[in-house]
Specification:
Blueprint lengths: L6 E8 L7 H12 L2 E6 L2 H4 L8 E4 L5 E4 L3 E6 L7 E8 L5 H14 L4 E10 L9 E4 L3 H7 L12 H11 L3 E10 H4 L5 H15 L8 H17 L2 H18 L5 H14 L16
């Protein structure tokens, strides 16, 4: 797609930007389904707080133990393709020096002739697990919005490292876009959400024109939904709460819904069930 060019860096980070591990799992799927090699890794001493993101001790197949430090790495395909190349940026959200972190990575992107930057994120939302996962697709770049029919976010407030990287990319002329999946809050804090990862990859393919291997995500998404159905079946409060979310979502999605109708439905939802039952994992959603 002309909006992002033919060498697109796709980014996802563990942590605040990654409800239900949807974004990091989407990039992990891209990595395992292709052949990639590292281009650049940041020095973890500069950006990570090891009391917050601790190194992990692991054992290899021969029983030798070694430390794995938190990292952020840019990876490229081992073989150049004819169409759009998806490069990957994956790691842990840094604890400090975000401006230096972003400048360092964007400098590497410029050196490698990256033409586009797409961030993948996921946030906890008041949405039902039984309906298609909503993905917000936006850009601050007017030309990219027009070329790809994207939206411009009106959000104001705290942001994660994805927004900082997207802003840094735009400032040096690398076209950027963001994809945010809405993950049901009542499960986002407890289990990975393959249905949301699948939705992100579907939208990424539409956005970039690259062929995306989804692996077993479709099967995993069905199993994920079925497991939540089974858990909710034993909880009358949760069943009713999910039914309220479904009704609200169906109203928003209906062809005949007007702005006034949606507003009225939303007000009704807040009056009668907006808070929902108190369930583990319910929290304010991360913001774009």
């Amino acid at each position: 797609m002309d909006g992002l060019g033919r060498r697109v860096l796709v980014a996802a980070f563990d942590g605040w930007n990654d409800a239900g591990e949807a974004a990091s799992s989407a990039v992990a799927q891209l990595r395992t389904s292709g052949s990639y090699e590292p281009v650049y890794s940041v020095d973890p001493e500069l950006y990570f707080d090891y009391q917050y993101t601790r190194p992990q001790i692991e054992a290899d197949g021969e029983g030798r133990r070694w430390l794995r430090w938190p990292e952020t790495t840019i990876l490229r395909p081992r073989k150049a393709g004819r169409g759009t190349e998806l490069w990957l940026l994956t790691g842990v959200e840094p604890a400090r020096a975000w401006q230096s972190f972003a400048s360092e990575l964007i400098d590497i992107a410029l050196r490698e002739d990256v033409t586009g930057f797409v961030s993948l994120g996921s946030m906890m939302s008041d949405v039902p697990h039984t309906r298609p996962i909503s993905v917000f697709a936006g850009s601050e770049n007017e030309a990219v919005r027009q070329a790809l029919s994207l939206e411009r976010s009106t959000y104001e407030g705290p942001v994660g490292i994805l927004s900082v990287l997207g802003d840094a990319a735009d400032r040096v002329g690398i076209a950027s876009a963001s994809l945010w999946a809405s993950v049901p809050h009542y499960v986002a804090g407890h289990t990975p959400s393959p249905k949301a990862s699948l939705a992100l990859l579907d939208r990424l393919e539409e956005l970039t024109g690259a062929s995306v291997n989804r692996g077993d995500l479709a099967t995993e998404a069905i199993a994920w939904e079925a497991s939540i159905d089974a858990a909710a079946a034993d909880d009358d409060e949760m069943t009713e709460y999910i039914r309220q979310l479904e009704h609200t979502r169906d109203t928003w999605d209906s062809p005949e819904a007007s702005g006034d109708a949606i507003a009225q439905e939303f007000e009704r939802y807040l009056r009668h069930g907006g808070d929902g039952p108190t369930k583990p994992g319910r929290d304010d959603p991360p913001r774009r």
